[in-house]
Backbone:
């Protein structure tokens, strides 16, 4: 079965129908719409149809449990929840746009509100606010200038599209007049078939995708004609050097880039030749940004107005993430590193963060979901190295609670990437004098 490809012109028609359907639902500028459906080419058009008419898309993982999903919905207070194929079809088959709905803005009026957890264990929305026309245009042009999106581009989405990076690349491609295709699920054989069929020019991926692809190619003696690619960008987790160098060989040194950032914002972009010259670097700050390290080695990124954000309805967390600098307002996500000769080096990710297959898993969120298990006295979640996924989520606990009770509760309350793969009962957790868990010891 052929993989669908949507052109900018086809997507624009869909976006106008979506805008008309949102108007029929009486959604107005600043209202939120939750999207909890699997990725598809239509998904990108729905996000653009909403954001270009002033409605805020809130993409969430459709695999979230009711426990996770309901907390986000209660926080967002959306005017519309699209969580089924029928609900999505109702938007796509919306009324023929009237003159108002047909008048989409040239640029999205806001960034999609993605949710991230952090050390508090409570997911919070990363909210750009409604952008001025000038900032909305600058945001799109900045991405276009960096990644070179052009009308001839075909972007192949291989990561879950509700994540910020793959959605951002797809949006940028369509807004530049290009086309987009979405792989429903990454499997190496399906990816190779899609490359041969679609002939993509760009792709965002995480190191786990590359690792799985190379393992499959070795096992099957298959080949992939990667000559259509002009851009392969990877991020989301540290990339092992052998995987990185093989990507350089397969796709081409002038094709592969790495960038460093988070849901909140992007810090650096590094072309492969620069990494080869300075192995281990994350490259220089993106154009228009300044990355510095403070006296505690915490990395801060000063950004232009269109890259500013707040944490939705959390002024305290927002205040802790921002500070004024000589280069303008700068934010941090708590990573530690250094800046030498204009190049950024990452020494330590946020100490508690587990990155499994490119998905950020925050131990505090997992611990909070399991904390009320009967007979559980204490629990700590952490990451262990994993050859396939980079890290796997693990838990140690204190108390008479049965391990299966914890596993069942995790299945009920947590999406698959967040569920601990290993559990171990211990007499007590290692803690500092101030009571903090020493996760490095675990």
Residues:
């Amino acid at each position: 079965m052929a993989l669908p490809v949507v052109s900018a012109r086809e997507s624009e028609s869909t976006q106008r129908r979506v805008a008309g359907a949102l108007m029929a639902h009486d959604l107005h500028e600043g209202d939120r719409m939750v999207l909890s459906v699997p990725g598809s080419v239509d998904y990108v058009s729905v996000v653009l149809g909403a954001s270009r008419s002033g409605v805020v898309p809130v993409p969430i993982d459709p695999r979230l449990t009711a426990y996770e999903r309901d907390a986000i919905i209660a926080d967002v207070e959306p005017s519309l929840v699209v969580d089924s194929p029928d609900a999505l079809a109702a938007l796509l088959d919306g009324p023929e746009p009237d003159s108002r709905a047909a008048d989409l803005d040239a640029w999205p009026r806001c960034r999609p509100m993605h949710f991230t957890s952090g050390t508090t264990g409570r997911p919070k929305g990363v909210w750009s606010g409604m952008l001025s026309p000038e900032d909305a245009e600058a945001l799109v042009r900045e991405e276009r200038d960096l990644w070179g999106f052009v009308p001839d581009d075909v972007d192949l989405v291989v990561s879950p599209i509700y994540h910020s990076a793959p959605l951002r690349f797809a949006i940028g491609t369509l807004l530049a007049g290009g086309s987009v295709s979405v792989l429903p699920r990454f499997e190496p054989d399906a990816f190779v078939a899609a490359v041969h069929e679609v002939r993509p020019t760009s792709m965002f991926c995480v190191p786990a995708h590359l690792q799985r692809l190379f393992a499959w190619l070795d096992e099957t003696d298959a080949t992939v004609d990667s000559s259509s690619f002009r851009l392969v960008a990877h991020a989301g987790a540290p990339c092992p050097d052998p995987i990185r160098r093989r990507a350089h060989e397969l796709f081409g040194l002038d094709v592969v880039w790495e960038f460093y950032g988070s849901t909140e914002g992007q810090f650096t972009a590094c072309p492969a030749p620069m990494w080869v010259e300075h192995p281990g670097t994350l490259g220089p700050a993106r154009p228009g940004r300044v990355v510095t390290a403070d006296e505690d080695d915490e990395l801060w990124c000063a950004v232009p107005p269109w890259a500013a954000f707040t944490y939705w309805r959390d002024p305290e967390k927002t205040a802790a993430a921002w500070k004024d600098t000589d280069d303008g307002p700068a934010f941090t996500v708590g990573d530690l590193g250094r800046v030498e000769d204009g190049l950024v080096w990452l020494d330590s990710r946020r100490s508690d963060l587990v990155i499994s297959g490119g998905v950020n898993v925050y131990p505090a969120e997992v611990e909070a979901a399991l904390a009320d298990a009967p007979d559980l006295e204490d629990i700590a979640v952490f990451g262990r190295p994993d050859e396939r996924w980079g890290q796997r989520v693990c838990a140690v606990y204190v108390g008479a609670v049965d391990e299966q009770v914890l596993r069942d509760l995790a299945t009920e309350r947590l999406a698959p990437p967040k569920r601990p793969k290993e559990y171990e009962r211990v007499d007590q957790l290692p803690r500092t004098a101030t009571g903090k868990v020493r996760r490095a010891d675990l």
